[in-house]
Amino acid sequence: MYENSFPNKRFKHTIQFLEKHVSNSEAILDLGVENPFTKIMQQHGFSVENTKGEDLDIDVSTIEKSDANVVTAFEIFEHLLSPFTVLKSIKADKLVASVPLKLWFSSAYRSKTDMLDRHYHEFEDWQFDWLLEKAGWKIIDRQKWTNPTKKIGIRPILRWFTPRYYIVYAERV
């Protein structure tokens, strides 16, 4: 089902990490609109509701109204100006979140055509940990993985051994 190509490698690591920490009986609120990974979670037996595309920097009402046991946020926080506000608004006791890590050899992602598809933050692991802790979360488990490409050059070589993604499982303190 998964191979080592983007985004399949990321999806494989993410679903394995999610299954390690979250039971299929727990309701999930996934931050962000329905996407290919939503379908993967559902195929693995998870009950998933997504936010509706609202600007979470401005409107956290869906998060505040949710009765989900778990909130997932896969590659969402880097798009927000204020991820702290979103993290504080979560009522669920469990959080599984992943972010792309800041790479010293590559600038932050910025779409040339989509004003909303930009990274305001690309975290170092310690920065994301600090953000979570400051927002009232205790990190229970964490994992990193690389995202190699089959391109030629110095940066593609660095991607073979430099972690690109960081995922955490945290519980509300």
TrEMBL record:
<protein>
    <recommendedName>
        <fullName>Methyltransferase</fullName>
    </recommendedName>
</protein>
<dbReference type="InterPro" id="IPR029063">
    <property type="entry name" value="SAM-dependent_MTases_sf"/>
</dbReference>
